[in-house]
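Field log, afternoon session.

UNIT: design team B
ACTIVITY: writing a sequence onto a fixed backbone
BACKBONE:
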C-alpha cells in the first residue's frame, strides 16, 4: 500500500472530512484533496490521479453511490479504488454498492483501525486479482 498516494475525501460535512483525514494521517497518509459532494468531486477525479477515493454515501447534488457508478463507467478511471462511508447499514445499500463495484464499505462511526483494515483489504484484494 502506497502511503504517498493521493487520496480524495468526499463528504458534505467539513467536520467529517477532517475526521477522515485525521484518521488517514494517523495511518501514515499525507496527500489529500477534498470535495463537498460528488458533483464537485467528479471534475477533480477526471483531472487528477487518485490512488483512493473515500466518499460519503448521502450527499446533495450527487451521492457517493452515483459518484461510484460514474467512476466505474469511465474507462480510464474504473479501476480507481473506492471506499464508501455511510451512517446506514441496510442490506439493500450494501448490495447496491457491491453491484456498483465498490471496493469497501464502512459504517459510521468507525475507528482508525477499522479504516486501516478496510484500506488494507482493498489493496490486498486488488493485488490478488492482478496476480490472479
Amino acid at each position: 500500500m502506497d502511503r504517498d498516494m493521493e487520496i480524495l475525501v468526499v463528504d458534505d460535512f467539513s467536520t467529517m472530512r477532517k475526521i477522515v483525514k485525521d484518521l488517514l494521517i494517523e495511518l501514515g497518509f499525507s496527500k489529500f484533496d477534498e470535495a463537498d459532494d460528488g458533483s464537485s468531486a467528479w471534475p477533480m477525479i477526471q483531472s487528477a490521479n487518485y490512488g483512493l477515493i473515500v466518499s460519503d454515501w448521502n450527499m446533495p447534488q450527487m451521492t457517493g453511490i452515483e459518484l461510484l457508478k460514474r467512476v466505474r463507467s469511465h474507462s480510464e478511471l474504473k479501476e480507481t479504488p473506492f471506499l464508501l462511508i455511510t451512517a446506514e447499514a441496510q442490506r439493500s445499500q450494501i448490495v447496491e454498492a457491491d453491484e456498483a463495484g465498490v471496493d469497501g464499505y464502512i459504517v459510521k462511526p468507525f475507528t482508525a483501525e477499522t479504516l486501516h483494515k478496510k484500506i488494507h483489504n482493498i489493496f490486498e484484494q486488488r493485488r490478488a486479482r492482478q496476480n490472479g
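LOG NOTE: The mean pLDDT is 95.
NEXT ACTIVITY: expression trials, pending approval
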